[in-house]
Structures are given as structure tokens and as C-alpha cells.
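Reviewer comment 2.1 asked that we show a complete input and output for one of the modelled complexes. We chose the alpha-D-ribofuranose case, as it is the one discussed in the main text.
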Amino acid sequence: MGQAPNITIVGSINMDIVTITDQLPKMGETILGQQFQMNPGGKGANQAVASARLGAAVQMIGCVGEDLFGNEMIAHLNSEGVDVSNVEQVATQTGTASITVSNKDNNIIVVPGANNHVTASFVEAKRDVIAESDILILQLEIPLDGVLKAVEIATKNGVIVILNPAPIRELPADLLNKVDYLTPNEHEIKHLTNEKNHAELIEKVILTKGSEGVSYFQKGKEINIPAYTIDVVDTTGAGDSFNAGFAVALGQGLSVEAACLYGNAVAALSTTRLGAQTGMPTADEVQEFLSNKN
Ligand code: RIB
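Response of the prediction step:
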């Protein structure tokens, strides 16, 4: 693999408030759960940490609150080797994600808080950071105008753009046309491609399918890269890990197919521990895992 890329993430930073339970309560019902944790999270921060562990030079652009969670998130990202000089503290609460983990799957409610301050004008002020990157990665936990501005700056400066459209929302056609890669899951893709735009968009889609692996598309043909079989503890952050692995491999000059394989390995390893970032592997751990598979 080539030199590790310079990756900028414009995205969310959340405190994950995690409950582990055997069963889910019905509306109006109270049940007893098994375990509780608070972990650093947010799709943006997760992708930043995963990319940094894989050896990339990573700049995070985002906002946290002027509160304890905000202080913790900045200290944590810094300790992971992520450049936090463009993470600002604003006078509101840090974003939170209430996560329920049950039977190795999860559901999540995000309250964006400070992430809502990552607007077009906030991103414009960070123009040079984006322009000097090899790769820009975005998700949809910040305002859409912030996403649009970041993509505009990146495309003007020849930066590769990966948009992870999660959580899904209505997106302008111009944005979809500008990005280089879209990494939806099977639920999200239904909102992105329709009969009219399918042929154009599908060639930039890397479809993540959980335990089924990922697919990319060449001349309309779906090519599936199967997932690695591993003992799963928690899938939270697996998609983020895939995105980071895919980006780092692509930035090192690997083909889309090889980048998908690498992303799959990163995602698989990330599911072996509870918490979005806890199991995210280093480049050496991925190498060892892949060597043992061959
Ligand atoms: O992708 C997982 C992440 O989604 C969690 O860390 C949570 O913060 C939500 O943003």
C-alpha cells in the first residue's frame, strides 16, 4: 500500500449513551436492562478515529458543546491522534446518541446539539483545511448546508469526496452528482436512487449490507465482496469503520475492490467489542487479520 492519505472529516461528534438489554420495552413499559456505558461516538468522530488508527493524517471539522461531554470528546479525539484544531466549542449541549443494543443489533436516537452549528459559514471558515486534503468524508448528522459547502470546496480543489448518507434524508441531485463515492446501507439506498437517476448514480455507490458484505457496481453489474465471518459483540460503528477503511485504502492507491476488502476487514474487527470505537483496529491489526485469512 502507498503512503497514508491526508483525510478531512466534516461531521458529528456525539457522546453515546448505551444500554444493553435482552429485550426491548414497548411504549409505556419499564423493563430491566443488563449493562450501561457512555462511549465517544458520532459518525464523524468514529470515522475520524478509525482512519487515524489505520495510519491516516486526520483533521476533524466539527462542533461540541461548552460542557463536560464536549471537553471529553476533544481530549479523546486528540489522544487518538486526530487533529482537533478545527473542532470548536459552542454555547450549547454536545450531541448525544441514545443507543440500545439488543441481540447484537442496535437502534439509535441522535440529538445533534452542537453538531447543528456545523453550517456553511462554519465550514467556509475551514476552507483551506478541506482544500489541502486528499480525501473528504462526510455523513448527514450536521446541517445540509454545511455538507454542501464542504463538497463544493472539495470538488473545486480536486479532493476525493466520500458521502456516507446516514442518517438518510432528501438530498439535492447536484450534491449526489458531485460526490465521488456514496456509501449507503440497504435502507438508505432506497432514498437515493430512483428509476430516473439509477444508472448515473449506481456507479458511485458502495452498498454496505452488514453480514452480507458490500457491493460495488461496474457497467450496471453488481459485484459483491463478502463480509468476514467473526464473533460479533456489537455492530455499532461497523459502517463507520468500513467507511474509514475504504477511504484509507483508496487514498493509498488501492482499487475499489481492494478498498472494499480492506473496509470489510476493518468493519469486521470493529464488531468484536462493545462500543462504536472500542474495537476499531490499527493498521497492523488489520494486516494480521488479513494474513491469517489468506
Ligand atoms: O454509526 C454509529 C454512530 O451513530 C454512533 O456512534 C452514534 O453516535 C450515531 O451517530
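The chain is about 35% helix and 25% strand. We note this here for comparison with the apo prediction described in Section 3.2.
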